[in-house]
Design brief:
This protein has helices spanning 14-25, 38-46, 54-59, 74-84, 102-110, 126-137, 154-158, 170-182, 313-325, 335-345, and strands at residues 6-10, 29-34, 50-51, 64-67, 89-93, 115-119, 144-150, 190-205, 208-224, 229-235, 263-270, 275-280, 291-298, 301-310. With 360 residues, the chain is an alpha/beta fold.
């Protein structure tokens, strides 16, 4: 699809493997891998990919650099690439950086003449786009917005998944939860920050109880510019809190009881009209992967189901990034948008301030 294009990837973990497959499907060759882990280096070599350092990678003249290393290395990685090639094309996984690095990142970008895209894949969601269309078509005035992403991650923690000790439970899905709301439009940006609630997690680790403070769940509230009350929620124990009817054929009126169900929803409520528009993101029980759906309810009764909606957000986001590099479209997620999302995540730590940020 993208003839004779190539990339060098920094980091070779799970997310990197997703990128590699998507780019392979787009006929984009991964010509180099940069990763300090000897095990990952061997795995890359077995796949026939050159393992190299930055200067060696630059000699391969990649069409773009694909940054999939941990967030704490993003700024330094981009700085290194910019020093080698100031006009480089760069894709970086979200989040773009840590909150304390934003000023440093801005200074770096001011010296950069290339193109940078952040892979905030939910900004490319067809489900969110359909929700926006329904809101406009029905001329809704939102009173409440709910964004929830819940998945049981206890086994992940037991198996050594990293613990976020800054955002805690919000550190795993929080960026997606926030992005889905912000993608609705600037009228949904925060005007006044509300309360934040956490729950502690207890896991059995080798027969011993281990308590993980604030890792079970988090719920955050704020008042948007359009006066809608916005609720952001996630549970690492798989406890669905905001279930909306029409989720799937098997679970039409009642939430799944299996705690390992992934439940991802964005719902917009107009109380004066009694209308709720709920968008469900993949994976949905009983549906194919990459299929979402949107349900419209009137006073709790389902009136319309729009399903299936093809919604391969990762592939679409990365394809859009390549087309931006080729000057075929606008940037699907600029560094400025991505930094605003990072700033948004930190607003509850500055609760005494009334804060407004924009994604333009």
């Amino acid at each position: 699809m993208f003839e004779k294009l190539s990339c060098v990837r920094v980091g070779d973990g799970h997310v990197a493997s997703l990128h590699e497959k998507i780019f392979r499907d787009l006929e984009i060759e991964t010509v180099g891998i940069i990763d300090p882990d000897p095990v990952k280096q061997k795995e890359a070599a077995k796949r026939g990919i050159k393992v190299c350092y930055f200067d060696q990678a630059a000699e391969l003249k990649p069409f773009f650099w694909d940054i999939c290393c941990p967030t704490k290395y993003h700024v330094e990685t981009i700085k290194t690439i910019v020093e080698i090639d100031n006009s480089a094309n760069i894709i970086v996984e979200k989040p773009i950086c840590e909150s304390g690095e934003i000023k440093t990142f801005i200074d770096l970008l001011n010296r950069f003449s290339g193109k940078l895209v952040v892979n905030e894949n939910y900004l490319s969601s067809s489900v969110t786009e359909k929700i926006k269309q329904v809101i406009l078509c029905m001329e809704l005035s939102p009173n409440r917005v709910v964004s929830e992403m819940t998945k049981n991650r206890i086994n992940d923690f037991i198996n050594g998944r990293f613990l976020d000790n800054h955002f805690y439970a919000f550190g795993y899905e929080g960026s997606h939860i926030v992005t889905n709301v912000m993608a609705l439009g600037d009228e949904y940006i925060p005007e006044k920050i509300g309360n934040m609630f956490y729950g502690d997690l207890c896991i059995d680790l080798n027969g011993k109880k281990q308590y993980l403070p604030k890792q079970a769940m988090v719920e955050k509230h704020y008042r948007a510019v359009n006066n809608a009350d916005v609720v952001l929620y996630t549970s690492m124990e798989g406890n669905i809190k905001y279930f909306f009817p029409g989720y799937s054929q098997q679970h039409f009126w009642k939430a799944p009881e299996d705690p390992h169900t992934r439940y991802r929803v964005l719902a917009v409520e107009d109380h004066s009209k009694g209308i709720t528009v709920a968008g469900f993101y993949e994976p949905i029980l009983g549906h194919n992967r990459r299929e979402g759906r949107v349900v419209v309810l009137k006073n709790g009764i389902i009136k319309t189901i729009i399903s299936p909606i093809f919604d391969d957000t990762m592939s679409k986001s990365l394809k859009n990034a390549i087309e931006y590099f080729q000057e075929k479209r606008d940037n699907p997620c600029s560094a400025r948008v991505a930094m605003d999302i990072v700033s948004f995540l930190n607003l509850w730590y500055k609760k005494n301030n009334t804060t407004m940020i924009g994604l333009n």
